[in-house]
Design brief:
- The protein has 162 residues and is α+β, with helices and mostly antiparallel strands.
- It contains 4 helices and 6 strands, in the order H-H-E-E-E-H-E-E-E-H.
- A 5-stranded mixed beta barrel has the order 1-2-3-5-4.
- Strand 2 and strand 3 form a beta hairpin.
Length: 162
């Protein structure tokens, strides 16, 4: 099983890059696994419902904290409030607008966010709901993730504010 599948099952909590494969079938195997696992991993954080009321513990001004269980892109992540994805809160950073993954700088922003949050507890203050996620200001040791990303040299360039 790949790390992504284990993470979707709630066994692995932190995404990590797999060792590069070698050989002529590496690309084909990666493509097949990606297509098979992709839909399952599209949104592993499910604490915020697509429709209906927002959980009270995520109301505007509420604080929540936990380890980062998943990095979506350079300005979105999941905070694990429990061991299962049903307790993972998808957060859109309120103070940083990363380039989209397919845009220049997008992959670098995602990698930087992953490195900054690896093994760290984040503390977030909820602002508002945006689709099935919470826009929040998140901090590590008192410093906002947006400030940490800018200090790491990551340029902003996203499509705008939610």
């Amino acid at each position: 099983m790949t790390l992504q599948i284990l993470r979707a099952l709630g066994v692995a909590q932190k995404p990590r890059a797999l060792a590069p494969w070698k050989g002529p079938l590496a690309g084909a195997v990666t493509l097949v696994l990606g297509l098979w696992a992709g839909p399952v991993l599209a949104d592993p954080c499910t604490a915020v419902p697509d429709r209906g009321p927002l959980p009270a513990y995520l109301a505007r001004g509420a604080t929540f904290s936990g380890p980062v269980s998943y990095i979506g892109d350079g300005d979105s992540l999941c905070v694990a409030l429990g061991p299962r994805p049903e307790r993972w809160v998808e957060v859109r950073l309120a103070d940083f607008y990363a380039p989209e993954l397919h845009a220049p700088g997008g992959r670098a922003a995602k990698i930087a966010l992953d490195r900054l949050t690896a093994g760290q507890q984040v503390r977030c203050t909820a602002d508002h709901r945006s689709y099935d996620r919470i826009v929040a200001l998140c901090r590590i040791n008192g410093r906002s993730l947006g400030d940490l990303l800018r200090a790491a040299g990551i340029a902003e360039g996203g499509r705008g504010r939610d």
